[in-house]
Design goal:
The chain is mainly α and 64 residues long. The protein has one helix and no strands. The longest helix has 48 residues.
């Protein structure tokens, strides 16, 4: 095996590893975004459940 092909193989392996790291970083970022969305939805559901029943003449403040 000559030195050029060995270096080429090593560079290809390094590029693949960097690609894997970039993919994992993107997956982690997407997961964090999904968790943030889930938290907002959960907080919204809790606020709706805690609000007075609008059918009883109370206004529900949804601006906050």
């Amino acid at each position: 095996m000559d030195l050029t092909s060995t270096a080429g193989t090593a560079m290809a392996m390094q590029r693949a590893q960097l690609g894997d790291q970039a993919s994992l970083a993107a997956i982690k970022e997407q997961l964090q975004a999904q968790q943030a969305i889930a938290q907002v939805v959960t907080e919204g559901q809790q606020r709706v459940q805690a609000a007075p029943d609008p059918g009883k003449g109370h206004l529900v403040d949804i601006s906050a």
